[in-house]
Write a structure and sequence with these properties.
heterodimer; A: alpha/beta; four-stranded parallel sheet; 11 helices; 24% strand; B: mainly alpha; Cytochrome Bc1 Complex, Chain D, domain 2; 6 helices; 60% helix; binds flavin-adenine dinucleotide
Chain lengths: 430, 103
């Protein structure tokens, strides 16, 4: 039974809440015996794992499959704390047993192909799965095509560490092997990219590590941008905690890198300046995860346009894209945003499968950054949707931590940063 | 499609009666939509596993008073003042009432 029929049916009967409650069993009439519909979620990161969990919370009768290659998901959030020597990899790894216990089918494979007209996906293990609704939360891929002299394989010697797991370990190992007095170069990309404050938190926590272990070392930031997230707060913290250690070069002053010489660990700026580093963390420009491109869901910029109320693709019906891969109006590409979008998308899908209108979406983001283990700063906002503006920030809401806050305030925000990590990972994975 | 819809009609009456007692898939309320955002910091259903205060089990009066005081600045906060400015009185009421139902 399709949505139209259900909708008409509800109208006929007046659409009371009793009717709404009956829609679960009503679906039993269609070809699937006991489910409301089949939803496949691709990607078990912040967007996908949250969406699968909340789909189940909103409608336990859904037939939900989560497809994710990794048995343990290693987060990017708090990976900078691993680089800073404050956490180990185990502390930022999460599995899917809670999802399985709920009855969500977790398949450890890659989705290789999406057949949108047939509503089917093909997996790397040879399986083909059919869906009524498909959710993609594949995260990011890199635009290696825009980087002269470097390919994806070279990330084994010049790590980006912008996807969780082995890349984080690789960068950490390079930092611990570096001699005192060495130079670490961090080269953040232009907008838009995953986690706008992330590179600068990374600078901070690497500085924290160097200050203790290798105090004669330097960090050079070669930025593609002329300004960055929470810049005044970061710079204030750097001056206070790591004086003389960190240098930032803006894009227009020669920070923009367009070539990498992998063999000599040298970054070449668009002005032709060469910068050699002992450890180089080149963070390439980004685009939506590969599967979104293969499925034909991306625009010319390489990201996925969606209806920002439901996250249904503007290109293909019944496919939703959430998280970093999606174009989500004013929301940044963050784990928090992906989690928030996962819930809105779950509500949209459950409402659509039941033929009722969804509640007005509300979205939130907060990005905490650690400048040191007990010095935290944050940026927050509340978002709503309108047809004209898409996802917009509610006027007067949000903003950054105060510039003149005292040490106790910074310390409290650092405590809340780890509290946030504990809460969001339990909200997403448990 | 149409014929399948018609063949469905017969059991529907029975199902409608059954549904009144077994809440299968309840509609998603506006309060739930607003409150689910809180979980990213305060844990699912407001049960925080870490340093951020839990809000599970709090009364609707407590939640609505606290949120309103965060918003006016009467109650000091790190980030809650910035969040609560994004919610109207009515939305705060819906959030407070939603959390009170989770007891
Ligand atoms: C250093 C760093 C620090 C960060 N810190 C924060 C922070 O403090 N707060 C915050 O909110 N955000 C932070 N982020 C951002 C956050 O990591 C991302 O925004 C978030 O992970 C996006 O969620 P997602 O679901 O879109 O993608 P991901 O979480 O990356 O999940 C994508 C998943 O999809 C899977 N996948 C991809 N393709 C396929 C396929 N074809 N088939 C099956 N599975 C597939 C991948 O294996 C992966 O598990 C940080 C990022 C970095 C790099």
């Amino acid at each position: 039974m399709n949505t139209m029929n259900r909708r008409k049916f509800i109208q006929l009967l007046g659409g009371s809440s009793v009717i709404l409650a009956a829609l679960g069993p009503l679906a039993a009439c269609s070809k699937r015996a006991t489910t409301t519909g089949r939803v496949i979620v691709v990607g078990g990161g912040f967007g996908g794992a949250t969406c699968a969990k909340y789909l189940h919370r909103f409608d336990p009768n859904l037939d939900i499959t989560l497809v994710e290659p990794a048995r343990r998901f290693v987060t990017c959030p708090f990976s900078n704390a691993v680089l800073g020597g404050m956490r180990d990899m185990d502390a930022i790894s999460h599995d899917y047993t809670a999802h399985e216990k709920r009855g969500i089918k977790v398949v450890h494979a890659m989705v290789q192909e999406v057949d949108a007209p047939a509503h089917k996906v093909t997996l790397s293990n040879g399986q083909t799965l059919a869906y009524d609704r498909l959710v993609l939360s594949p995260g990011i891929d890199f635009r290696w095509e825009d980087v002269e002299g470097m390919t994806a394989a070279d990330a084994q010697s010049i790590p980006h560490a912008w996807q969780g797991g082995s890349q984080t370990t690789l960068l950490r190992d390079q930092l611990t092997a570096m001699p005192d007095g060495g130079t670490v170069i961090i080269a953040p990309p232009g907008n838009p990219f995953r986690c706008p404050p992330g590179p600068y938190e990374r600078v901070s926590l690497i500085a924290h590590y160097l200050k203790q272990q290798k105090p004669r070392s330097k960090i050079l930031i070669l930025d593609a941008k002329d300004k960055f997230s929470k810049q005044p707060l970061f710079m204030q913290g750097w001056q206070q905690l790591y004086p003389g250690m960190i240098e930032w070069v803006s894009g227009s002053e020669g920070g923009r890198i367009d070539e990498v010489d992998v063999a000599t660990r040298t970054l070449i700026s668009e002005l032709g300046d060469k910068h050699k580093g002992d450890v180089i963390n080149f963070i390439p420009p980004q685009k939506a995860g590969l599967i979104a491109h293969k499925a034909g869901l991306t625009n010319n910029d390489g990201w996925c346009p969606v209806d920002q109320r439901t996250f249904e693709s503007s290109i293909q019906a019944d496919i939703h894209v959430i998280g970093d891969a999606s174009i989500a109006g004013k929301m940044p590409k963050s784990g928090f945003a992906a989690n928030s979008q996962g819930k809105v998308c779950a509500a949209a899908i459950v409402s659509a499968l039941h033929g009722v209108s969804m509640p007005e979406p509300s979205y939130v983001n907060t990005c905490y950054s650690l400048v040191s283990p007990d010095y935290g700063i944050s940026v927050a906002a509340v978002y709503r949707y309108s047809k004209e503006k898409g996802i917009y920030k509610v006027k007067g809401s949000g903003g950054v931590s105060p510039k003149d806050a005292d040490a106790a305030f910074r310390q409290q925000e650092a405590r809340y940063a780890s509290g946030w990590y504990d809460s969001i990972t339990s909200d997403t994975f448990s | 499609m149409r014929s399948r819809f018609l063949t469905c009609l017969f059991p529907i009456t029975a199902l409608l009666l059954a549904a009144a007692t077994t809440s299968q898939a309840a509609g998603i309320s506006q309060g739930a939509m607003l409150s689910n955002s809180c979980a990213a910091c305060h844990g699912t259903d407001g049960k925080s596993p870490g340093a951020i205060p839990s809000i599970h089990g709090k009364s609707s009066q407590f939640i609505s008073r606290t949120l309103t005081e965060f918003r006016s600045g009467k109650r000091p906060s790190t980030v809650m003042g910035r969040h609560t400015k994004g919610y109207s009185d009515e939305e705060i009421r819906l959030i407070a009432e939603y959390f009170a139902t989770l007891k």
